[in-house]
Amino acid sequence: MPHAPTDAAPDAATATPLSPRRRTLLDAALHVIADEGLKGLTHRAVDRRAGLPEGSCSAYWRTRNALQAALTEYVAGALLTDVDELTARITQCDGDARKVEETLALFLRWLDQRELLVARLELTMAATRDEELRLLLVDHRSRLVDIVDGIMTAAGKEHGGARAEALVASYDGILLAGLLQPAEGRRDFLIRSLELLSASLTAPDGE
């Protein structure tokens, strides 16, 4: 029995697990955006991609704005979960080299999940013109910066909040550039980029 329809995505802090039907629809929406861009995101397109009867998507999110907000929460939440899991692994690592390896493994997995990254990029661009989406992404980004800040603090790195913010922005840039690399060159590109970033942004001030 499907959940009652809603026009708004749940708050990330209080959200209950998605029903299988909602997850199927949001996964289908990711593929629609990856193939057609955000302009192609319609309820009908999502229904077709999910292989569900017409009207299935609109039963949960009546408007396109509601669908976009739910998808933004879904994408940002998935990325944050991955980062939380990476943080747990990194805290057990000895030395920066191992931490770079763990981050590299996550980035390569993300690049293999092209739909997730492309959807995030499309939604980020839309957020420059949509205040609701902007606020959702700002909230998730601030939590991501807090995670990175905590990692740097635990590692005893001298830094300020601006450095953690710069590190997150740099990771975004590396991922975008990684999407443009040929598949066979992505690993080497990411290794070089992450090692340079680790050396330049986590070194004490003045070095």
Automatic annotation (TrEMBL):
Lineage of producing organism: Bacteria, Bacillati, Actinomycetota, Actinomycetes, Propionibacteriales
Keyword line: DNA-binding
InterPro entries per record: Homeodomain-like_sf, HTH_TetR, TetR_C_31
Protein name in the entry: TetR family transcriptional regulator C-terminal domain-containing protein
DNA-binding region ranges: 42-61
Organism of derivation: Nocardioides conyzicola
Ranges for domain HTH tetR-type: 19-79
Pfam families on file: TetR_C_31, TetR_N
SUPFAM superfamilies: Homeodomain-like
PROSITE patterns in the cross-refs: HTH_TETR_2 (PS50977)
